[in-house]
# Entry
Amino acid sequence: MMTVRVGPLISETTPLMTILRTPDSRFENIPGYDFKPNYLEVDGLRLHYIDEGPKDGVVVLLFHGEPSWSYLYRHMIPPLCDAGFRVIAPDLIGFGKSDKPTSKNDYSYAGHVEWMTQFVTNLDLRDITLFCQDWGSMIGLRIAAENETRFARIALGNGGLPTGDENLPTVFKLWQKFARFSPWFPIGKIVQFGTVTELSAEEVAAYDAPFPSAKYKAGARAFPQLVPTTPTDPASDANHAAWAVFKRWEKPFLTTFSNRDPVTRGGEKMWQKRVPGAEGLEHVKIRNAGHFLQEDKGPELAEVLIGFAGTS
# Structure
């Protein structure tokens, strides 16, 4: 039997999953984030998303990563809307205003791909220009590869599609251990560590807002452990299959990596080399930006997407 309670208590309980829902009061008066909330349901979970700009505009779909939420795109959404695009930015399950299962065992790579595939298909999004970063790319690229006809073009920034065959940098392995073992897991400060820009206290608090207590952070804790790091990883075969799609992908594929991300720096080269749709494009290097390039150089990145999404 399902129960529904309000506030920081458990919002929904099923025999298989316990879910928390961050109180709306946590999101009041967040600077630069006055977008109308929208919600839909995926597998009984409430998923939040921003949907701004003309409803008949070309869709620009923005996928955030770990441990951020759609707040990350607040500098990019207004200029994209002003340029006539319909801008959609969801919060992944476990993040932002979306529901948060409380056990790390409730989160899997395949599960996130399925949840967000349902999101795309339930909204019946087509002719999509996808921008994705970090875990947003690991999920978004899979969805694009498995639903090719819905996507017109892709821009990738500071992300990838690991199969478990790569030699991941030491800094990522340290991040995995920190997420797994550290009793201290300050979301806002983690985002600050991944930016060149010094965030204000209000901005750090905005990244903390979705997580009133440690109970809400299961998804953020789980994500680093779900990155494929060995060829036998459960996601390895599916990611190899997605790579096979991208090796014949003729649609425009742009890389927009930053120059100061210790995790993904240089990762754009494999996409430029392997994806046919990347050939001949003027790939962009975002200067003086860290892992969260949307935070460091949001307006500049928005201008890149405006030009890219307007191409044939």
Remarks:
- DSSP finds ten helices and ten strands in the chain.
- The radius of gyration is 18 Å.
